[in-house]
């Protein structure tokens, strides 16, 4: 096989590989997006259940967000909020 044909064949193989790799990545992303949507639907359902049982979902979301933070991050956030409240004369907790 001539050198030019070998080079062309190698380029075609590389292009084919790149296309198949791209397709696989896109399919994985699509699958994960579907899973993310399903999880979001499940979370929405749980918040709906909480609301039906008399819980304040806005407060529940805030608690969930706070629990996801590190203690130091949470303390820093609370200190900033307190500083802003004082600056605006909103009052202490």
Q: Globular, elongated, flat, extended or rod-shaped: what is the shape? A: elongated
- The whole-angstrom Rg is 27 Å
How many domains make up the 3D coordinates? 2
**What distance lies between the first and last C-alpha atoms, to the nearest angstrom?**
82 Å
Q: What percent of residues are in strands?
A: under 5%
Series of secondary-structure elements, N-terminal to C-terminal: HHH
Q: Provide the residue-averaged pLDDT.
A: 92
Say what oligomer this is: single chain
- Number of alpha- plus pi-helical segments: 3
Helix percentage: over 70%
Alpha-beta classification: mainly alpha
> Which runs of at least 5 residues are low in confidence (pLDDT < 50)?
none
Largest sheet: none
Notes on the protein architecture:
This protein is mainly alpha-helical and 93 residues long. It has 2 domains: 1-55; 56-93. The chain contains 3 helices and no strands. It has helices spanning 3-52, 57-67, 71-88. The radius of gyration is 27 Å and the shape is elongated. It starts with a helix and ends in a 5-residue tail after the last helix. The model has no long low-confidence stretch (mean pLDDT 92).
What are the key terms here?
93 residues, mainly alpha, 85% helix
Topology of helices and strands:
Elements: H1 3-52, H2 57-67, H3 71-88
Please summarize what this structure is.
The protein is mostly helical.
